[in-house]
Structure formats: structure tokens, C-alpha cells
Amino acid sequence: MASARDRRPNGALEPFKAYLNARFTETQGQVSGTRLFHEIHERGYRGSRQVVRKHLAALRAGTAAPVRADIPSPRKITSWIMRPRDTLTDSQEERLLQVRLACPDITRACDLARAFAELVRHQRGFLLMQWIRQAEQDAPKPLQSFAGSLRQDFDAVTAGLTLPWSSGTVEGHVNRVKTSSEPCMAGPR
């Protein structure tokens, strides 16, 4: 996974380089820096005209650095994995496929995470041991660790994935009391 620093665009021109490169290619290099500057300025570019001219000169010389990939954040990838497939847009499904193809660990983690989400959504606690065994055998280390912790609390987790009762309301009240801004009025000791 790329760090946040690696995902951050490098300079004001970075988000517009793919557009500039495409325009350069489609015009076979016969486009002025001023024209390209005006085109990307209309699209939100706030840098200088000189930076655009330098990039265009590098394209003409064949020395321009390749455009950095737009790498989605781990949080975004996780949200795509955990949501039901039918709620993803075509674009999100395509981006997730690109990530899966680029990283075998994410592919396996994605499959296991989606299977676990199905267990939770449909209360299929009877399949939990099978899921734990799969995760312990060939999952990335964090998922193996998660599976081990589920094994330690197997009865409680199975009950949570099987029984219709929930302690959610009680937990909500406990959380409200804990985060309440009112001071505790404890009596004398």
C-alpha cells in the first residue's frame, strides 16, 4: 500500500499532467504552451504558465517523467471491499479490480473480508469456523491475527453472528453516559 505521501500529488501541475500529455499526443506535439495553460486554467489549475511550458518542453524532448498513478487511499479501498458489490458504481468496481490485480495480498484479503461481511450481514455464525480456517491458512498476517482473535472468543462471536438479540441499545446508552459532559455525582466514600 502506498503511504499518504506517495498518493499526494507532487506540485500544482501534477493533477493536470495526464490531461496535458493526452492533448500533446492528440495534437502530435503541435500545441502551444499558452493554449494548454488556458485549457487547464479553466479546469482549475492555479500554477504558473512557466511550469506548463517546462512540462511541454520535457514532453517534446522525451524526458517528461511518467504521470503518477492516482492511488486510492487504504480507507477508500476498504470501503469498496466491505460494501455489497451491487452498491458499487462501475467506476468503483473498476478501480477495485485494478487494485486487486496490482496486489495479490489485497485480492486474498478482499475475498476473505467480503466472505466475513456476508457472515455478519446474514447472521451465518455456523460458517464461522470454516472462515477462520481459511483465514489462518492463507490470509495476509493482519487477517490471520483477526481470525486468531475470533477463535479465542469463538462462542461469543458465533452467538453474535447467529442469535437475533443485540446489545447495541445498551452499548449506545453506556457510550452516551461515558461521553456525557456532566460530571459524575458520586456520593461520599
Explain the overall architecture.
Helices cover 64% and strands 0% of the residues. 13% of the residues are buried. It has helices at 4-7, 17-26, 33-42, 49-61, 74-82, 90-102, 104-121, 128-138, 141-152, 154-162, 168-179. It is mainly alpha-helical and 189 residues long. It has 11 helices and no strands. Helix 3 crosses helix 4 and helix 8 runs antiparallel to helix 9.
Task: Give the key terms.
189 residues, mainly alpha, 11 helices, elongated
Any chance you could write out the topology, listing elements then pairs?
Elements: H1 4-7, H2 17-26, H3 33-42, H4 49-61, H5 74-82, H6 90-102, H7 104-121, H8 128-138, H9 141-152, H10 154-162, H11 168-179
Helix pairs in contact: 3-4, 6-7, 7-8, 8-9
Summarize the structure.
This protein has helices spanning 4-7, 17-26, 33-42, 49-61, 74-82, 90-102, 104-121, 128-138, 141-152, 154-162, 168-179.
Pick out the low-confidence regions.
Answer: 4-9
Q: What gyration radius follows from the Cα positions, in whole Å?
A: 26 Å
**Basic shape:** elongated
Strand % is: under 5%
Task: Report the end-to-end length measured between terminal Cα atoms.
Answer: 54 Å
User: Biggest sheet: strands, sense, closure?
Assistant: none
Q: Calculate the mean pLDDT score and round it.
A: 84
Helix content: 55-70%
Number of strands: 0
Number of helices, where a helix is a run of at least 4 consecutive DSSP H or I residues? 11
Order of helices and strands: HHHHHHHHHHH
Structural class: mainly alpha
